[in-house]
């Protein structure tokens, strides 16, 4: 038996690379057909070259090793026998089996993302918490050849391992002639590798992390007809509910919940822009929140249909922040005009909860990302409201409402004063979890305070230092969710450190947290996990009294993709500052890296940057669309010593703004340029 388990058919080998492809079912092929940037970095893309894939290996569980051979079909021999097919990475869609049997019985199919949940029952996804996902069964009544395609309603959104097992008498054999999977994610793309952004550095781990974030987002872009069924079913699973408009939509996770969660989009949306460039899925996710908005109050739901949970002030605001991000990246004025009245109603709804004596938001919609406490003058919610007001002011400008721009900025200014007055803990050196007396100093609020520039430089430095006290060898524990490590909130933390140029801390946390999971032999080794415990197990939130089992954790969750945008926007240093990139910024942070390059595409064209360090300085090459203008912020080569700067061979000694050991130069007109600093 053990010898047979080492066999793998040649049909299970990797398919040849081909750019030819198809879209999912009846969706229109509206996605890009070619990558925006071709080069060696494409080797890091996890996405297969075809929508039809096959397992890479047949896993031998007895020796815990993997091997395959291109010879005879693997066989199930007798009742209870099993084979484990490993696709090598996170996949999702509809499986087809071809088999030959010597009698009657049934072949079972069970799915799991993580290796440690491999078995004859699938890992948990249905959300009912009262019954197992179980398995699917292909029944056969006579000997001979047969085939089975799983029902589309039972599409499995995310898995790496497929266990195939036999239920029959002990003298029945079943040869598995072929296993294939039609991928369902990124349904409007005929070429799943047609990324519109890229990142490449001299650090292979960081490169893998960037692309794992991108692939996570791909698996979270799903057909709108494949949402998880609500009410949840108690046995088995069903992914057959409508999620929103269009053909494709961005959801929270591949396996589950398979619904729009605006809070998750606070991380997922910017990372989608710099990597896959899939903003159609984003647009549909945001539009469904406006379509389901409470028209009498202006309140957004916490999640999209069919889940449609309510009662979250923070997620209400994330829908508003998502509107800003989408507009920044697309300048979709039709979208803004169509939803502007709804946006303003949403702002009125949340700002009515501000206490005019303290100036702080009184949180009454207490549902949130998973933190253990929420409500009253919670500091995380104050940080999110501040960012909502600042981004709202930009939206008002783009909508041509100058008066509203001034109003939103004025409100943000007042809130900033109130936050620093009532929520700051001077003795500890960080923000408290609430304006009331508390010893809890949360990761979420303090990370966002850094990222959104809510406090002064001295306090920001203290916050950054205090955040490191939550670190373990495998990531940052969130004090507001004890024992748990949240890549969602840690995504804000790494960006917060980078926002105040604590580069080494950010890179350290990326490597110890995301690097730990990506290299974990029990993980997908291709996508980003929802969360995990500080003891290194995958039981995210299971330590806090939740009733579901640890296998319910999603191993492909877009809210964990923060390093993808952080590495592009801060380490490479490339970002846009007005819609489509009419204005932009290049502000690299080197850390311990020697070279980085990357770019992304908007409808204006390609934005691309490369930097290389030398012993006596560094060189930056960049290319931006013509007619654009931006600031290039250059780190000093030596502390306190103003650098020598040449742009396109010309010394730059006038019009340079010096601040915080950086020199900023404005470049107008776009085009291709070379900067030499020493």
From TrEMBL:
UniProt KW Zinc-finger keyword? no
Query: Could you tell me the keywords of this UniProt record?
Result: Signal
Q: Which domain of life is it from?
A: Eukaryota
Q: What is the lineage of its organism?
A: Eukaryota, Fungi, Dikarya, Ascomycota, Pezizomycotina
The name on file for this protein is Alpha-L-rhamnosidase
**Residues of the signal peptide:** 1-20
Q: Which GO terms describe its biological process?
A: carbohydrate metabolic process
What the entry lists under InterPro entries is as follows: 6-hairpin_glycosidase_sf (IPR008928), 6hp_glycosidase-like_sf (IPR012341), Bac_rhamnosid6H (IPR035396), Bac_rhamnosid_C (IPR035398)
């Amino acid at each position: 038996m053990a010898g047979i388990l080492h066999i793998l058919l040649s049909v299970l080998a990797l398919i040849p690379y081909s750019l030819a492809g198809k879209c999912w079912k009846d969706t229109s092929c509206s996605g890009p057909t070619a990558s925006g940037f071709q080069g060696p970095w494409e080797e890091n893309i996890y996405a297969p070259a075809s929508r039809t894939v096959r397992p890479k290996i047949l896993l031998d569980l007895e020796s815990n090793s993997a091997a395959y051979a291109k010879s005879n079909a693997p066989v199930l021999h007798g009742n209870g026998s099993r084979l484990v097919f490993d696709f090598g990475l996170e996949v999702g869609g509809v499986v087809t089996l071809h088999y030959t049997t010597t009698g009657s019985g049934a072949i079972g199919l069970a799915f799991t993302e993580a290796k440690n949940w491999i078995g004859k029952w699938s890992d948990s996804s249905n959300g009912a918490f009262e019954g197992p996902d179980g398995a699917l069964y292909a029944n056969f009544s006579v000997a001979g050849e047969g085939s089975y395609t799983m029902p589309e309603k039972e599409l499995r959104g995310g898995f790496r391992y497929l266990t195939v097992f036999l239920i029959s008498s002990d003298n029945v054999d079943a040869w598995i002639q072929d296993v294939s999977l039609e991928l369902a994610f990124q349904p409007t793309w005929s070429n799943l590798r047609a990324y519109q952004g890229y990142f490449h550095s001299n650090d292979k781990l960081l490169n893998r992390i960037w692309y794992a974030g991108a692939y996570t987002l791909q698996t979270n872009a799903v057909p709108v007809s494949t949402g998880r069924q609500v009410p949840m079913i108690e046995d088995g699973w069903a992914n057959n509910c409508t999620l929103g408009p269009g053909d494709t939509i961005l959801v929270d996770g591949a396996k589950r919940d398979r619904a729009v969660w605006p809070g998750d989009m606070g991380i997922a949306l910017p990372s989608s822009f710099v990597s896959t460039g899939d903003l159609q899925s984003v647009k549909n996710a945001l539009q469904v929140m406006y379509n389901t908005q409470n028209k009498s109050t202006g309140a957004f739901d916490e999640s999209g249909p069919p889940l449609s949970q309510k009662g979250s002030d923070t997620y209400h605001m994330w829908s508003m922040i998502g509107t800003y991000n989408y507009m920044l990246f697309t300048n979709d004025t039709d979208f803004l005009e169509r939803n502007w009245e709804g946006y303003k109603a949403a702002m009125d709804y949340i700002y009515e909860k501000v206490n005019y004596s303290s100036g702080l938001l009184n949180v009454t919609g207490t549902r949130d990302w998973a933190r253990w406490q929420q409500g009253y003058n919670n500091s995380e919610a104050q940080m999110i409201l501040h960012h909502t007001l600042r981004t709202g002011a930009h939206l008002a400008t783009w909508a041509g409402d100058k008066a509203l721009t001034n109003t939103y900025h004025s409100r943000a200014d007042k809130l900033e004063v109130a936050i620093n007055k009532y929520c700051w803990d001077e003795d500890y050196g960080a923000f408290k979890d609430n304006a009331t007396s508390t010893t809890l100093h949360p990761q979420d609020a303090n990370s966002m305070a850094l990222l959104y520039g809510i406090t002064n430089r001295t306090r920001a430095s203290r916050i950054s230092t205090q955040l490191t006290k939550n670190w373990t060898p495998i990531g940052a524990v969130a004090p507001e969710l004890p024992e748990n490590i949240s890549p969602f909130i840690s995504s804000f933390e790494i960006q917060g450190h980078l926002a105040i140029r604590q580069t080494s801390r950010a890179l350290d946390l990326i490597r110890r947290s995301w690097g730990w999971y990506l290299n974990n032999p029990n993980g997908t080794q291709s996508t980003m996990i929802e969360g995990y415990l500080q003891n290194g197990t995958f039981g995210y939130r299971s330590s806090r009294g939740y009733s579901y089992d640890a296998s319910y954790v999603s191993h492909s969750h877009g809210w964990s993709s923060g390093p993808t945008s952080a590495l592009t926007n801060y380490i490479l240093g490339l970002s846009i500052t007005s819609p489509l990139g009419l204005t932009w910024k290049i502000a690299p942070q080197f850390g311990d890296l020697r070279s980085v390059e990357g770019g992304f595409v908007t409808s204006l064209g390609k934005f691309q940057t490369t930097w290389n360090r030398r012993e006596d300085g560094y060189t930056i090459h960049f290319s931006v669309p013509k007619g654009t203008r931006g600031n290039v912020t250059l780190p000093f080569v030596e502390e306190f010593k103003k650098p020598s700067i040449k742009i396109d061979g010309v010394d730059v000694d006038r019009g340079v703004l010096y601040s915080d050991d950086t020199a900023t130069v404005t470049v107008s007109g776009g085009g291709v340029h070379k900067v030499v600093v020493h």
